[in-house]
């Protein structure tokens, strides 16, 4: 196995991980970003609620642009999956295929996968949507479904009445699991609870959902909707390092992404909070700045100085590789997209 040393290793190439890597690299810390590909952001057909990014930008376009930015500042990016992680030696060793990466700090930005209901289902982004805060606006005055049997499904169905007066809650043949109080609340709202399961689906030429067919022979028209079946957190590495998790399955962190294990940060959908691209970016920025405070060489403390002068030859503290990347960027006329 060959080995490479870094100050920061970021695992996960979504908006949170990429933003963390952008900050740590620009703040002068040798950073490697390890990304297996895919993820929730990559599935976005359009980008919503990200100021300055037009909606026709796909998730993949957003991520590829961000990755190129991070690389232009001198970070290394690796396509692969971390198969093992060990923090017992005072630093962290991450195995990716035949390569080993060693880092002083690790940032987990591995996110989660949405639990999918059984088909028939429309295409993701063409009638199947997982982000209420991103996509509810798309369904103003449109017929909408919500799938699920739990508390979250019932509440999302009621929330969608803020946007449309045509909301169905699809149980798909299962018994509801929400509380009696929620049931009374739901029954008081103009939400149609459909008990029978879906037997078929109709889509338009553009791939968008048009209607569901049900086992009782009825057909109901929908523009789209939201399945509410929970989340499967990508927390194998977090568990391998012994990170504390919340009752909901998130990794517990402080306001700057520090986990319960020294040297390990977590950001984005893996942590508690709203699962939004701008929120993930903000968490990545805060973690990147916190990492800088922990890793920067200067200023030296009075104990470190101990009456001696700092050797000018030890400055700047930035590595030769990042200095060279900065020189390359200075040679190119900056654009508004650089930052």
TrEMBL record:
GO terms for molecular function: oxidoreductase activity. It comes from the Archaea. Residues 304-339 are annotated as: Disordered. Keywords: Flavoprotein, Oxidoreductase. Residues 320-332 have a biased composition (Basic and acidic residues). It holds the Pfam family Pyr_redox_2. Residues 6-284 form the FAD/NAD(P)-binding domain. This is NAD(P)/FAD-dependent oxidoreductase. It comes from Halolamina salina. The lineage of its organism: Archaea, Methanobacteriati, Methanobacteriota, Stenosarchaea group, Halobacteria.
């Amino acid at each position: 196995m060959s080995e490479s040393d870094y100050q920061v290793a970021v695992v996960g190439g979504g908006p949170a991980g990429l933003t963390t890597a952008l900050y740590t690299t620009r703040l002068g810390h040798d950073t490697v970003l390890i990304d297996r590909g895919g993820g929730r952001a990559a599935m976005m057909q359009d980008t919503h609620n990200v100021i300055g990014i037009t909606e026709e930008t796909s998730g993949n376009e957003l991520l590829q642009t961000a990755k190129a930015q991070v690389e232009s500042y001198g970070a290394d990016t690796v396509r692969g999956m971390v198969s093992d992680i060990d923090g017992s030696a005072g630093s962290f060793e991450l195995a990716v295929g035949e390569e080993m990466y060693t880092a002083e700090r690790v940032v987990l930005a591995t996110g989660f996968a949405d639990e999918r209901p059984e088909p028939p289902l429309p295409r993701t982004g063409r009638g199947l949507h997982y982000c209420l805060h991103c996509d509810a606006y798309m369904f103003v005055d449109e017929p909408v479904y919500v799938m699920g049997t739990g508390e979250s499904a019932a509440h999302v169905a009621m929330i969608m009445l803020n946007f449309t007066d045509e909301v169905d809650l699809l149980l798909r043949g299962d018994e509801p699991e929400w509380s009696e109080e929620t049931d009374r609340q739901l029954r008081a709202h103009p939400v149609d609870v459909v008990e029978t399961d879906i037997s078929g689906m109709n889509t338009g030429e553009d791939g968008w959902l048009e209607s569901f067919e049900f086992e009782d022979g009825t057909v109901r028209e929908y523009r789209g909707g939201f399945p509410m079946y929970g989340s499967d957190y990508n927390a194998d590495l977090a568990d391998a390092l012994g990170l504390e998790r919340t009752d909901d399955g998130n990794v517990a962190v402080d306001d700057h992404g520090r986990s319960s294990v020294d040297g390990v940060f977590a950001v984005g959908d893996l942590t508690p909070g709203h699962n939004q691209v701008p929120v993930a970016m903000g968490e990545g920025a805060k973690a990147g700045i916190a990492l800088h405070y922990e890793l920067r060489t200067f200023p030296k403390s009075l104990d470190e100085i101990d009456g001696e002068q700092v050797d000018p030859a030890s400055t700047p503290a930035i590595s030769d590789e990042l200095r060279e990347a900065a020189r390359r960027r200075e040679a190119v006329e900056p654009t508004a997209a650089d930052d």
